[in-house]
Amino acid sequence: MNDSLVIAGKTYGSRLLVGTGKYKDFDETRAAIEASGAEIVTVAIRRTNIGQNPDEPNLLDFLPPERFTLLPNTAGCYTADDAVRTLRLARELLDGHTLVKLEVLGDPDTLFPNMPETLKAAETLVKDGFDVMVYCSDDPIQAKMLEEIGCVAVMPLASLIGSGMGILNPWNLQLIIDQSAVPVLVDAGVGTASDAAIAMELGCDGVLMNTAIAKAQDPILMARAMRKGVEAGREAFLAGRMPRKTYAASPSSPTTGLIGR
């Protein structure tokens, strides 16, 4: 089945995107990402060494850019200016790389997005030639504003970052999916494979996760489970589920030819 994810004109075979934080070491990071089948991996520029600290282990030695598409992100940024500055640094470190993930946080307790600052940063980055994938609230109006600014993908949260609570508001998520002309990927809140499957069954183009894999008791096994959950959910969406029938049963077996009839 030829069903590829296309972001900023590039085609990907996997619809699962994964983060690189919270693992015990870079070896575990590499093993989990390989098990997930992900082709796009996010990197927190403010927290992970990709060359800016020459005396520390470099993530790129474990996840070479020629094999994986790196997605620098602005985790830890609370203003538009900080986010823009961080991604300009990433572009320099990665030889002109333009595909980035923007997130501007509102507070350190919930890590909920600061949407006014997010919109401001997105506009600056798009004008500066970046291909911006953007973490946002599940507000359909603001998601559409980000698309109109020129973001290449919108990434509404399912629930709070690192919460593992799954999709708390499928109705808003469905509104965003139905209105969007760019890929919609759930970002934040996925806890287990069924959460990923539900997101894909709704019609999301992909799922991004980190904590759900990195903090599982067995990250490698969970990475494989997430890969299967995303694939199963996508296939179920493409297959088209049967209609829901309230108070109406429909037997699977024929009712004609029974004894006594």
TrEMBL record:
Q: Which residues form the active site?
A: K101 (schiff-base intermediate with dxp)
User: Where is this protein found?
Assistant: Cytoplasm
EC numbers listed for it are 2.8.1.10
Which molecular function terms from Gene Ontology are attached? thiazole synthase activity
A single Gene Ontology CC term: cytoplasm
Reactions catalysed: [ThiS sulfur-carrier protein]-C-terminal-Gly-aminoethanethioate + 2-iminoacetate + 1-deoxy-D-xylulose 5-phosphate = [ThiS sulfur-carrier protein]-C-terminal Gly-Gly + 2-[(2R,5Z)-2-carboxy-4-methylthiazol-5(2H)-ylidene]ethyl phosphate + 2 H2O + H(+)
Q: Name the source's superkingdom.
A: Bacteria
Please report the stretch or stretches of sequence annotated as the Thiazole synthase ThiG domain.
7-254
CDD domains (UniProt xref): ThiG
Q: Name one GO biological process term.
A: thiamine diphosphate biosynthetic process
Pathway given for this chain reads: Cofactor biosynthesis; thiamine diphosphate biosynthesis
Give the coiled coil ranges. Answer: none
Give UniProt keywords alphabetically: Cytoplasm, Schiff base, Thiamine biosynthesis, Transferase
Among SUPFAM superfamilies, the record links this protein to: ThiG-like
An example of a Pfam family matching this protein is ThiG
Residues that bind 1-deoxy-D-xylulose 5-phosphate: G162, A188, G189, N210, T211
Instruction: Spell out the subunit comment.
Output: Homotetramer. Forms heterodimers with either ThiH or ThiS.
The UniProt family comment states: Belongs to the ThiG family.
Q: HAMAP family, per this entry?
A: ThiG
What does the function comment of this entry state?
Answer: Catalyzes the rearrangement of 1-deoxy-D-xylulose 5-phosphate (DXP) to produce the thiazole phosphate moiety of thiamine. Sulfur is provided by the thiocarboxylate moiety of the carrier protein ThiS. In vitro, sulfur can be provided by H(2)S.
- Name-wise, this protein is Thiazole synthase
> What organism does this protein naturally occur in?
Denitromonas iodatirespirans
Which gene is the coding source of this polypeptide chain? thiG
